[in-house]
Structures are given as structure tokens and as C-alpha cells.
């Protein structure tokens, strides 16, 4: 934990300020390396209610198992295993991240203080940091924080925090808050969304990406029951090879059929589109290891909500946002964005409306009219 984090952290119980306990172990940064001092082991004392929170292996630990949802804690532990199994950082994550957060682009993060709700192995924190953010606080409820700290925790301005999204230890101090692929795994997704929205500054912005209900009936009907009843309970020694077998079939499908068909479809516009083509074409860019990670990710979780557009839009309406940008991403998921700055919202709406010259339709479909 970097000492600058104390400017943003507050006690999740009483919102009091923290003091770093004397005797904490601090490792200094290396001159010229771009690294900074890190508190590796220690304790944070609340100056108000006298509660104590440990700092271990470089990460402050704020999860209270008595108050957090047992379901969320278990889900966090399962995803922690997932990220330990697939800790690789890949340059392809950058474009994937920008696709999820569009209309936000890489220039948007410059000099901002940013919060990520659900950081996994730290891949998005790395991208944000390299895009010249002032500070990025990356939060996760489970052991994924240890993978994230190993990957990016010593980068300048990157803070890895173990905490519950629904009970965060921060002031309302963030220029931009985002959460990608996380809220739909919470016991109460809207509660997590609401908690994140409360930390956005009065002139800040928020972006979230969730699984959509539309076009995902096969997942809801067939995969979800199997995941809940079986695969989310399997030990790593069984789930890893099982997901590898499924990933091999998926890899063969996207490489031998989907990718060639998509290339032909760009040349011959009359070729019909097949079911789930947008998503399968999108993941065809990945290698086998990444597809294995994607399959494992889908099978390991005990909770996955598939959220209809109407419900997703209502989240924003409930917090007073009348006109959010809602995108149907790859025709199987939803991205939502809003900014408290009217001028910024106008420019983001304009970006979404810009045509992609490589296709005949607008770059992104804003909503699904007939779900």
C-alpha cells in the first residue's frame, strides 16, 4: 500500500480517518525505476472508532466476513482461484478494455483519480495507469488482490485494496469509477452499483459492463443450472482440465469456422450471420490460453445474473441519471456510462453515433428494441 492512499481511505464503519501504526514494514522504491515506497506489512488504525485493519503482502484488508454477503465472499474466493490459475497479463487486454468502456477512450484517464470495482488480476489497473491516470484504486473481495499486487501493485499510482464493493472504505473522491464484468456476479448487483455510484465526485463519471439477458437464453437455461449445481463446486484439479476440454472445442470452432466466415462476410455482404456471431468473432482473436481462461471464468462462479436492458437502464434512473448511454456490446452484454458534466455527456453521445467506416451499420447498437 502506498502512503498516498491515506488521503482517500476512510474507515468503512464510521468513515473516520486512518493512521498507519508505527512499526509497519515499508519497502522503498528504487531510484529511477518509477516505483514508489510500499507498506508491505502493518496496520491501519481508525482515529475515530479505534477499529484496526491489517495490511498484509502489500494490500490493506477491509473485508468483514460478519457483515459481507457469504455468497459474495464465496464467489470472491472462487474467482481468486481463477486468477491464480490464469495470472498472465496480455497486451490484447488493452483493446478489450477500451471496447468494454467505449465511449471512454485511453485519453480520458489522464490525471484522474479512478476506482475499479472488481479488479481480478489487475489487467485494467495496468492499462489505466499506463494511460497517465493520477491514481487508480483497484478493489476485489477475494484473494485475487494478491495476484493483482504481484502483477501491478508496485506501479506508480496503483493501489490494490481488498474490500467488499458494497462496503467500500473510500471518500467520495473519484473522477471516474468503473466496474467491468463484476456486478452481475454479486448476490445483489444493484446494491454494488449503488455503492460505486456514491463514490463518484459531483463532476465525475461512472461506467459499468454486465451480462445481458437478451440473446443469452441458452446460457440462462442450460449453462447456469450446471454451473450452480456442479462446476462452481468442483476443485481446481478437476475444473481446470474440464474447462480445457471445452476451451479446445471453442478454440477449434472460432479458428476453423467463425474467423474465416467473418472474413468472408466482410467481402460478401450477402452472407447470412449465424447465432452469436458477434461474440464468437470477437473472441476469435484470442489464443487457446485466453479462451481456456474465459471458459474457466464462466464455469467457476456460483452466481451469474443476466440483466435485461430495462433493469440495467433503471439502475441509472434510480440514482437520478435520466439519459445514460446504454450500449448492447457484442449483442450479449450491456455497457452503461454517465457523466455529471453535460458537455462530456454530449461529446460521448456524439462518439457513439459516429459510424464505423469498416461496416455499413453504426459502430455500436445503443439498445435492443425487441429483446
**Would you identify the regions where 5 or more consecutive residues have pLDDT less than 50?**
30-34, 357-371
User: What is the 3D form?
Assistant: globular
Termini gap? 45 Å
CATH topology of the largest domain: Rossmann fold
How many structural domains? 2
What is the number of strand segments? Answer: 12
* Strand order in space, largest sheet: 8-7-6-9-10-12-11
Order of helices and strands: EEEEEHHEHEHEEHEHHHHHEEH
Structure description:
The chain is of the alpha/beta class and 371 residues long. The chain folds into 2 domains: 60-212 and 307-353, 3-Layer(aba) Sandwich (Rossmann fold), CATH 3.40.50; 231-300. Helix content is 37%, strand content 19%. The protein is built from 11 helices and 12 strands. Strands 8-7-6-9-10-12-11 form a 7-stranded mixed beta sheet, with helices on both faces. Strand 4 (52-56) and strand 5 (59-60) form a beta hairpin. Helix 1 packs antiparallel against helix 9 (288-300), helix 7 crosses helix 8 (277-283) and helix 7 packs across helix 9 (288-300). The longest helix has 32 residues, at 236-267. The termini are far apart. Residues 30-34 and 357-371 have low confidence and may be disordered.
Amino acid at each position: 500500500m502506498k502512503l498516498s492512499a491515506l488521503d482517500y481511505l476512510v474507515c468503512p464503519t464510521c468513515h473516520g480517518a486512518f493512521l498507519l501504526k508505527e512499526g509497519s514494514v515499508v519497502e522503498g522504491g528504487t531510484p529511477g525505476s518509477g516505483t514508489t515506497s510500499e507498506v508491505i506489512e502493518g496496520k491501519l488504525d481508525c482515529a475515530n472508532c479505534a477499529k484496526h485493519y491489517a495490511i498484509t503482502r502489500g494490500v490493506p484488508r477491509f473485508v468483514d466476513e460478519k457483515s459481507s454477503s457469504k455468497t459474495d465472499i464465496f464467489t470472491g474466493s472462487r474467482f481468486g482461484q481463477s486468477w491464480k490459475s490464469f495470472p498472465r497479463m496480455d497486451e490484447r487486454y488493452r483493446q478489450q478494455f477500451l471496447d468494454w468502456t467505449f465511449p471512454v477512450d485511453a485519453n480520458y484517464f489522464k490525471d484522474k483519480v479512478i476506482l475499479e470495482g472488481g479488479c481480478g488480476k489487475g489487467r485494467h489497473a495496468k492499462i489505466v495507469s499506463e494511460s497517465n491516470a493520477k491514481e487508480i484504486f483497484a478493489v476485489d473481495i477475494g484473494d485475487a488482490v494478491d495476484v493483482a499486487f504481484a502483477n501491478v501493485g508496485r506501479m506508480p499510482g496503483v493501489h490494490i485494496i481488498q474490500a467488499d464493493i458494497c462496503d467500500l472504505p473510500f471518500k467520495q473522491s473519484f473522477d471516474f469509477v468503473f466496474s467491468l464484468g463484476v456486478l452481475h456476479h454479486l448476490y445483489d448487483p444493484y446494491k454494488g452499483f449503488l455503492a460505486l455510484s456514491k463514490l463518484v465526485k459531483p463532476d465525475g463519471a461512472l461506467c459499468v459492463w454486465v451480462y445481458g439477458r437478451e440473446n443469452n437464453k441458452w446460457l440462462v437455461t442450460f449453462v447456469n443450472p450446471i454451473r450452480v449445481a456442479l462446476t462452481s463446486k468442483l476443485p481446481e484439479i478437476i475444473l481446470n482440465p474440464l474447462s480445457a476440454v471445452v476451451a479446445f472445442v471453442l478454440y477449434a470452432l472460432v479458428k476453423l469456422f467463425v474467423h474465416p466466415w467473418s472474413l468472408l462476410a466482410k467481402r460478401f455482404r450477402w452472407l447470412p450471420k449465424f447465432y452469436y456471431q458477434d461474440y464468437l468473432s470477437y473472441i476469435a482473436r484470442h489464443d487457446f490460453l485466453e479462451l481456456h481462461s474465459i471458459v474457466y471464468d464462466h464455469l467457476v462462479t456460483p452466481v451469474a445474473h443476466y440483466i435485461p436492458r430495462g433493469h440495467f437502464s433503471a439502475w441509472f434512473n434510480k440514482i437520478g441519471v435520466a439519459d445514460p448511454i446504454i450500449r448492447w456490446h457484442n449483442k450479449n452484454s450491456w455497457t452503461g456510462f454517465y457523466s455529471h458534466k453535460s458537455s462530456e455527456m454530449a461529446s460521448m453521445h456524439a462518439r457513439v453515433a459516429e459510424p464505423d467506416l469498416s461496416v455499413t451499420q453504426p459502430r455500436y447498437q445503443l439498445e435492443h428494441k425487441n429483446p
